[in-house]
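Q: How do we represent a protein-ligand complex in a form that can be generated token by token?
A: Start from the inputs.
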Amino acid sequence: MRRVAVNGAGGRMGATVVAAIDAAPHFSLVGAVDPAHAGRRLGEFVPGVDEGTAGVTIVASLDELASAAPEALVDFTRPGPALTAFRWCLAHEVHIVSGTTGIGRAEIEELQGEFSRDGASHGVIAANFAISAVLLVRLAEIAAAHFDGVEIIELHHDNKRDAPSGTALETARRIAAARAAAGREPRADPTTEEVVAGARGGVGPGEIHLHSVRLPGLVAHEEVIFGAAGQSLTLRQDSYDRSSFMPGVLAALARIEELPGLTIGLDAVLGL
Ligand code: NAD
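Then emit the structure tokens for the protein with nicotinamide-adenine-dinucleotide bound:
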């Protein structure tokens, strides 16, 4: 039974992770950190968990986790607290799985240097734990070399502030790299007259057009449409709620022992 603690346990993702760990057969929820909810019990946030999990008291800081002796920490917080969590895990020889977004590339590279391949603490950081999204990017990468053109549509709920989504940008980067490796030039846009400004979307890596839809009722969805003479291929993934991220989080926890250093993204976790 692997002992797991959750950082940001009172948040939307943190509470979902608590429920997922509680329900998973090989993990035990032993600690929870969240300064905004310190002193409260997990049972107040997460209905239906077993007695042991419900009785865990949320603490204000990672240092208060010592007696819980976690083997792994799952972090869904904010960039500052997440960086603190990575370094705390390194210092305390605890594995870490983090889904916090917005950590800069330079900071992630710095962390990669700190998580040496023979260190006792292993880390996984992924901007998207939905297995359908990870597979979409990988499948798009495979298709990239075989089509003349490609465009990306990402669709999200109407509270999302940034556009396009980080996952859509990463998809464009990976497709662009695969196309460049196959010697495919970016395709010239035939549009000479954009009647409504922005109708052709934004132009991302590899001159790939990206279109962002924001509507109530949506959660997180992405389509990649490839075109060639007489045919097209559409890849689509849909995340309907936060439970979509949990199999990816549990897979990272299950495999982290075998993944030394800091692993970026879920491809290695899923063996892609
Ligand atoms: P949220 O605001 O609901 O939760 C964040 C929690 O972190 C809050 O409860 C807050 O009190 C807590 N927190 C703040 N400072 C802390 C600290 N120093 N120590 C411990 N906890 C602290 O946000 P959310 O919707 O749960 O999202 C959290 C993060 O997860 C965001 O970065 C979001 O973009 C990311 N996210 C990632 C994925 C993925 O698949 N990788 C999916 C969804 C969300």
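The chain has two domains: 2-125+243-270, 131-240. Helices lie at 12-23, 51-54, 79-92, 105-114, 131-144, 166-181, 246-255, 267-270.
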